[in-house]
Amino acid sequence: NAGVMQNPRHLVRRRGQEARLRCSPMKGHSHVYWYRQLPEEGLKFMVYLQKENIIDESGMPKERFSAEFPKEGPSILRIQQVVRGDSAAYFCASSQGSPMNTEAFFGQGTRLTVV
Amino acid sequence: GEDVEQSLFLSVREGDSSVINCTYTDSSSTYLYWYKQEPGAGLQLLTYIFSNMDMKQDQRLTVLLNKKDKHLSLRIADTQTGDSAIYFCAEIPSYQLTFGKGTKLSVIP
């Protein structure tokens, strides 16, 4: 059973381009979370999704950011018109059930650099 | 202020014990967690403690929880160079983990 798989591991985008980050949860996991880690900071919650539903996106910027977790395929975090301040490590985690009762497993992250 | 606070750096000699401290704010958290992040890697769950426990021991790791003071600590016995990493304390008041900024542990050979 592979762990949480994120790709790409590193992504470089020019200002104004779009960034697409992918996350394949562990097999059997239907809960997905995205976190952002700015340099020298802890992880900050962005969004919590279950299959085809956004449960909580309170941590996501209102503009340019969107996330989805379709019935088939990986979860996608999409950042439109990237700016330098979007440079960060983006981590995905998945869990089998409610995060209050089950462990969330983290992927290795996608490191986005905006130049 | 931050919901979860940790000191940013800790340096210890190989073989000594390391104690990493954390304070949190939300007393409704069911679990409190310690994660380890090695350079360029994701987060690895090290251990967790249920909120109705005072102490949990797992091999070289000891977690102490003081609910009254909202203080959590992680003790690593016989610290090795492989323990060098950033350690994050996290609480989970609802379904989103709230992390501290992390404590960078440096182990001196």
Strand content of chain A: over 45%
Largest interface: A-B, 27 and 21 residues
**Structural class, from helix and strand content of chain A?**
mainly beta
Radius of gyration of chain B: 13 Å
In helices, the fraction of residues of chain A equals under 10%
Give the distance, in angstroms, between the N- and C-terminal Cα atoms of chain B: 36 Å
First and last CA, distance of chain A: 36 Å
Which structural class do you get from the secondary structure elements of chain B?
A: mainly beta
Largest sheet of chain B: 6 strands, mixed
Number of helices of chain A: 0
- The amount of beta strand of chain B, in percent, is over 45%
Mean pLDDT of chain A: 92
CA-based gyration radius of chain A: 13 Å
- Counting DSSP H or I runs of 4 or more residues, the number of helices of chain B is 0
Order of helices and strands of chain A: EEEEEEEEEEE
Biggest sheet details of chain A: 7 strands, mixed
Describe, in plain words, how this protein is organized in 3D.
- The complex is a heterodimer of chains A (115) and B (109).
- Chain A has 115 residues and is an all-beta fold.
- Helix content of chain A is 0%, strand content 49%.
- In chain A, strands 2, 4, 5, 6, 9, 10 and 11 form a seven-stranded mixed beta sheet that branches. A four-stranded antiparallel beta sheet of chain A has the order 1-3-8-7, with no helix packed on it.
- In chain B, the strands form two sheets. In chain B, strands 2, 4, 5, 9, 10 and 11 form a six-stranded mixed beta sheet that branches. In chain B, strands 1-3-8-7-6 form a five-stranded antiparallel beta sheet, with no helix packed on it.
- Chain B has strands spanning 5-6, 9-13, 18-23, 31-37, 43-50, 55-58, 61-66, 71-76, 85-91, 98-99, 103-108.
- Chain B has 109 residues and is mostly beta strands.
- Chain A binds chain B through residues 4, 6, 33, 35, 40-45, 48, 55-56, 59, 91, 93, 98-101, 103-109, and chain B through 4, 30-31, 35, 41-45, 48, 88, 92, 94-102.
